Amino acid sequence: MTREQQVLDRIERMRRRKPVVREERITLAHGAGGKATQTLIEAVFLEAFRNPMLAPLDDGALVRLGDGPVAFTTDSYVVSPLFFPGGDIGDLAVNGTVNDLAMCGARPVHLSAGFILEEGFPVADLRRITASMAAAAERAQVTIVTGDTKVVERGKADGCYVTTAGVGVVEQPVTLSASGARPGDAVIVSGPIGAHGAAIMLARDDFGIEAPITSDTAPLHGIVAELLKVLPRHVRTLRDATRGGVATVLNEVARASEVAVVLDEERIPVHPEVTGVCELLGLDPLYVACEGRFVAVVDGEHAGQALDTLRAHPLGAEAAIAGTVTADPPGLVLLRTAFGGTRVVDVLVGDPLPRIC
Amino acid sequence: MTREQQVLDRIERMRRRKPVVREERITLAHGAGGKATQTLIEAVFLEAFRNPMLAPLDDGALVRLGDGPVAFTTDSYVVSPLFFPGGDIGDLAVNGTVNDLAMCGARPVHLSAGFILEEGFPVADLRRITASMAAAAERAQVTIVTGDTKVVERGKADGCYVTTAGVGVVEQPVTLSASGARPGDAVIVSGPIGAHGAAIMLARDDFGIEAPITSDTAPLHGIVAELLKVLPRHVRTLRDATRGGVATVLNEVARASEVAVVLDEERIPVHPEVTGVCELLGLDPLYVACEGRFVAVVDGEHAGQALDTLRAHPLGAEAAIAGTVTADPPGLVLLRTAFGGTRVVDVLVGDPLPRIC
């Protein structure tokens, strides 16, 4: 019997025993490492993420990644509320780490998941989150192979925090870096921006605004792979526009590459509902988080081909060339407004939207 | 200029600019992804973990792990208090993940670190934690190559939670699993148990007890490598005895391997100070967490050789053969007491020591 079969067998035996979490809410015992932890792992995590590599009784997972470069990344998720139109902390945690790997030019392969749960957190909500993680993992074709659970006392967390880490394999030689932009490059935005942040704000219900906005959370490795297949040598930088939005990503690129980025306000894709909500709340969509959009800096001569490639993918149907890279003034992002003026799009100061992801 | 040189250059430029965190306490802006986050990353994390692969401006790190099996693991740390005799949450988070990789038979190579910070957390404490992580990483010869920081509002965390993930390379073919124990095997404990848990309890200061106990937190990959070098084919199971202690680990082994583990109370190494504190608090040292001790199940015929190998290492000077594996009763851990009786060492129920790691 191979090791894989043995593990599958063990999972089967565990499943036949059908461990049941009898508590409706998480207790400190669920984090103690004993019987309650074991039951929680088997009845919730193993049930949701079932795969032969997930080894709840071992200290880690053994995987094979091949001889090439490996991308390794992590993100913690503390979004509030945990459930929002278009997604929840679970698919956010999977897609976010999948996307960070994709931005390195890697094919995402395996994920880990660390949970910090607050005593009293409803077990039903945890099941909803793990189900959503499992669905997102399946969609992104990644496997959650190892994990951890801690429980803290009431008032020492906010229900559930999730930290995912991921490994991916780089299958074609690409050089992607925030410092790779050069004058003459085009700045492409993969789709309409700001929907995730706007959806979270509406879900918080602090504002009494209603609008048909859902989070854009999505795995971007597929569309990125298409782009890199067509233009392996002409994509300079890929960044997903999460916390701080497109403005923050481009400021990092301008700074790291010592170039200027000049955006054209009229060409930045934003849905009118998002623009509307942002206006009501006094926010600039350029700073609002997306969870399924990225910025690609591409050799200007190949910008059209890049755009066509992105638009051919369902997640890039509304992609647009939103700006260009120039030599001066280095380190700055400028916006040509619809009225013909130019203003500096500065680095984000303060936090207009705490706990957006 | 190679990519590595470019990155080192960029780090040098950043260092010359000497970003300074002017706030004494963490604010929500430090988690927003903008200017304050950037400064925090550069002035605190990059300063502490400085290495060419740590790419604060990119979404992940590219590493090379070779063609063999790769071990991948994660753990979240929520220990309270954050600082305790013998260590803090920082070295715990590094050593814990290093040890999980070591228990897979892997040489730990790279770590990620995700921070969840509470608004108001002292920046000086964060520096102390990152300095301690850097020192632990250097001792364990691992590199912290990627990370993330989130900030939550006051009252939504407890100062600082850290989630580390790690990758390691398996350089010799070993088969280690909780399900690998067989009748006739010896159960070896690598050193005196329970010191970490006892140190944490004393540090909580709830009990008014004073005793010269420090945490046993330590990286175990070195001593494990020695053992596997000498006995590559005769070590069945390696588990570090953290949450739930030696009793929990052995229950998992007994259950997964469908064997019994029979412990000899007189041969389990425990320091008298730890025994004393546990007696005062009504705890059994077998259930108390260690952070630098492991249990090895070894082919009985090679137990003496295994013990000699462990004792030759500074972290194993007090290693002991504490029990044996028998066929019956499958799934149970038994303890032969000093008085000649036998009792079942059951799976931990409830949580006697919340937030021990």
Report what the structure shows.
Two copies of one chain form a homodimer. In chain A, helix 2 runs parallel beside helix 4 (123-140), helix 3 (89-103) runs parallel beside helix 4 (123-140) and helix 6 (221-230) runs antiparallel to helix 9. Chain A folds into two domains: 3-169, 2-Layer Sandwich (60s Ribosomal Protein L30, Chain: A), CATH 3.30.1330.10; 186-344, PurM-like C-terminal domain (Phosphoribosyl-aminoimidazole Synthetase, Chain A, domain 2, Alpha-Beta Complex). The mean pLDDT of chain A is 93. In chain A, strand 13 (333-336) and strand 14 (342-344) form a beta hairpin. In chain A, 32% of the residues lie in helices and 23% in strands. With 357 residues, chain A is of the alpha+beta class. In chain A, the strands form three sheets. Chain A has a seven-stranded mixed sheet. In chain A, strands 2-7-5-6 form a four-stranded mixed sheet. The first copy, chain A, has a two-stranded antiparallel sheet with strand order 3-4. Chain A is built from nine helices and 14 strands. At the A-B interface, helix 1, helix 2, strand 1, strand 2 and helix 3 of A face helix 1, helix 2, strand 1, strand 2 and helix 3 of B. Strand 2 (69-77) of chain A pairs antiparallel with strand 1 of chain B. Chains A, B: Residues 182-329 form the PurM-like C-terminal domain. Chains A, B: It comes from Nonomuraea mesophila. Chains A, B: Residues 58-170 form the PurM-like N-terminal domain.
